[in-house]
Specification:
mainly alpha; elongated; membrane; Inorganic phosphate transporter, PiT family; transmembrane helix; phosphate transmembrane transporter activity
Length: 337
């Protein structure tokens, strides 16, 4: 095909994908800064700048394994076309806006994956899915918050034991400083895992239209564009979700905030290096619940946590349904003479 014939549509879809990435940063800003804000180590307006910087530079630290998983490991690349990508982005963006408006920290990552699956299956049925990659992603829904929970809980126990001879003031002062490190690591992991998902979407769109030749790869301009869009979204903040994540699940001290961020960051680093697209929202929520449960089970507001879990469960099917509807609408419109 003559790829240049679709250039205006292609450019428009890339712009929509970058808008999703911006909304991802906006929606998931809370994941990076909730603990450092709730412990009052940084004011919100400073915390978003801190998180945005590390969101952006993440591309220099991690490879592009997650982008390759999204591009070729969720839906068969042969199924991908402009309508599938458009439907996927509509499904993800609409669901993100709904949950952002309600202040529910759902997963932007799984909204995008659900949208991609919904658009692909609307076109080609169940055969559109790459079940090995999709199964790995679905398992991560359970494993990433569980790993964040366990790591954060273990860290709290270790740090509490190591600090038993220190005064509360000394512990608080030390972990206020250390939280700058843990928040940086978490923001780095967030930028590394989440921005790559949009990179994968744009790259597979370019590949499907013949712009990348015969071999799938992620162009460097796509990498920079996606990291910048996410960083700008983080700068805008997401204060409703910050309140839920940082204040309503459990009250945090600087030491607990450090443990939650470190446990969450370790989970994201492992997943990103393995090429598994995990949810930063799931990960940090699991870690925050872990530090609360280490204190005592009643310290966790389980009704708030359960509401968040319900949102996790319905995110992929909800965004997939919206994407499928968008695909069918576009198909009908395109057939109108």
């Amino acid at each position: 095909m003559d790829a240049t014939l679709g250039l205006p549509i292609l450019a428009g879809l890339i712009a929509v994908a970058l808008m999703f990435d911006f909304l991802n940063g906006l929606h998931d800003a809370a994941n990076s800064i909730a603990t450092i804000v709730s412990t009052r180590v940084l004011r919100p307006q400073y915390a978003v700048f801190w998180a945005a910087f590390f969101n952006f530079v993440a591309f220099a630290v991690f490879g592009l394994n997650v982008a390759h998983t999204i591009g070729t490991g969720i839906v068969e690349p042969s199924v991908i076309d402009t309508q599938v990508i458009f439907a996927a982005l509509v499904g993800a963006i609409v669901w993100n806006l709904i949950t952002w408006g309600l202040g529910i920290p759902s997963s932007s990552s799984h909204a995008l994956i659900g949208g991609l699956v919904g658009g692909g299956m609307a076109k080609a049925g169940l055969s559109a899915a790459v079940w090995s990659g999709l199964t790995k992603t679905l398992l991560a829904i359970v494993l990433s918050p569980l790993l964040g929970f366990v790591l954060a809980l273990v860290l709290v126990v270790i740090v509490s034991w190591a600090s038993v001879r220190s005064t509360p003031f000394a512990v608080d002062r030390a972990f206020r400083i250390l939280q700058f490190v843990s928040a940086s690591l978490y923001s780095l992991g967030h930028g590394g895992n989440d921005a790559q998902k949009t990179m994968g979407i744009i790259a597979v769109l370019l590949y499907s239209q013949g712009y990348l030749g015969t071999e799938f790869f992620v162009p460097f301009w796509v990498v920079l564009s996606c990291q910048a869009a996410m960083a700008l979204g983080t700068l805008m903040g997401g204060w409703r979700i910050v309140r839920t994540m940082g204040l309503r699940i459990t009250k945090l001290t600087p030491m607990q905030g450090f443990c939650a961020e470190t446990g969450g960051a370790a989970t994201l680093f492992i997943a990103t290096w393995l090429g598994v697209p995990v949810s930063t929202t799931h990960t940090i929520t699991g870690a925050i619940v872990g530090v609360g449960a280490a204190r005592r089970a009643s310290a966790v507001r389980w009704n708030v946590a359960s509401t968040i879990v319900y949102a996790w469960v319905i995110t992929i099917p909800a965004s997939a349904g919206i994407a499928a509807l968008a695909y069918w609408v576009v198909s009908l419109v395109s057939k109108v003479p």
